[in-house]
Amino acid sequence: MKITVEFLSLQLITKDLGRKKIDVDFAGGRFSDLLGRLAREVKNFDAVVLGEDGEVAPDIFFTINGEAVGEGRDDIGARPMRDGDTVAFALLIAGG
How many domains does the chain have? Predict the structure, then answer.
């Protein structure tokens, strides 16, 4: 199956990729499996996107199929991925 992954405002990743979006041929599994694959195959993914626990860091905003993942994201790793899913990661920006 194919999963589209977008990196928005994550220059440390996109400068090496040369683009903001990649398609990943994914044999199936859960969101946590996708995170592991991206950590192995995308330079700086683990340093930029993942926290020490291997989950998406709290300062990273992400969506799955355009839906923001917020409260209750602790169990998001178990979410099954499906062909055609789109996952987008972006750095949370705060200001005042």
Answer: 1
